[in-house]
Amino acid sequence: MKKCIACGMPMRQASDFAQGNPDLDYCKYCTRPDGRMCSFEENQHRLVNLMVKTQGLDRAVAVAQVDASMRQLPAWQAHYQEENR
Ligand SMILES: [Zn+2]
After folding, report:
1. CA 20 to 30 Å from 64, out of 6, 24, 50, 83?
2. Measured on CA atoms in the order 48, 62, 39, 20, is the torsion positive or negative?
3. Helix (H/G/I), strand (E/B), else coil: 22
4. How does pLDDT run across 22-46, given as a tens digit for each residue?
5. Which are the contacts of 69, defined by CB distance < 8 A and separation ≥ 6?
6. How far does the centroid of ligand 1 lie from the alpha carbon of residue 85, in Å?
């Protein structure tokens, strides 16, 4: 089973993938209207809002948790490497 490289969501069926295409490495939620993968900021913003909404967390707590999980995801390795320079 593939996991989205941008948010870690398991993608079980074609409809979970960006554009319904199982050859892509990211999910439908991490996709822009034009079909490309969301940027770091777009995805971070979306995940933080989702966590605040679904888990009732403080925004600061949600930001820290999203940051910790995005650090583990393949899509953002370059982003974090640049940050550490
Ligand atoms: Zn995703």
Report:
1. 24
2. negative
3. coil
4. 999 999 999 999 999 999 999 999 9
5. 8, 47
6. 27
- Enter the tokens of residue 28: 């439908």
| C-alpha of residue 38 to centroid of ligand 1, in Å | 9
* Cα(71)–Cα(35) distance, integer angstroms: 23
Residue 41, both tokens: 């900021």
In 1-85 the beta strands, taken as DSSP E runs, fall at 2-3, 10-11
Alpha-carbon distance 1 to 50, whole Å? Answer: 24
Name the residue with tokens 């948790």. 65
| Mean of pLDDT over the chain | 96
- Read off the tokens for 72: 């583990």
37 C-alpha vs ligand 1 centroid, how far in Å?
9
* Cα gap 75→3, rounded to integer Å: 11
